[in-house]
Give the backbone structure.
Amino acid sequence: MQQTKEQTIARWGFYLLGMVLLALGLTLNTKTGLGASAIVSVPFTVSQATGWNFGNLTLVVYCLFVVAQFILKGEKRQWTDILQVPLSIVFTRFMNLFAGVIPYHNGYLPADLALLVVAILFTGVGAAMTVAMQLIPNPGDGIVGTIARITDKELGFCKNCFDVGCVSLSLIIGICFGNWLLGVGLGTLISMVGVGRAIAGFNYLCKRPLLQATGMAG
């Protein structure tokens, strides 16, 4: 279906808004003091242990995800996949921006849990919007999608397995630094379930209107 100029602009607008919401959600998750979202738990754990910048470490991990996709896809790789790298640069700059301008101090559990709910909603909505627009995938989504295709397994199952792998590696890194819960916690576990539910809810309520607004509805 041919898109009008306005629909193309709307498509990119929704995509960029989704990226901003996703970056905000992941950052807010770390602000709760209850651990990071599973997909970024490894760079967050390393950041907590070393004091290195969380956004920059996330960029490194995302670039590794892109390299892994190129290796796993083999002859089916596409050079357009490399666009995930500049996307990651912009995405992680937003994470650094949000981390610097949001002056939240955790420690009061009811407030921390309330912020976690907001973080999960932003993360789920952001992820759903970016995936729905079918443009450049976030490297976290890209690597999971690649694994699902080459293993012929259901996407949700692969996402769950990948999240468990990330959390397990984060625990191992934490143990090496003397605190196995350095970068993961209750918020990590809740977000593993909650983000998926937020994505499902957003898709149920809003996906079709978004596709119609961008000329993507069949």
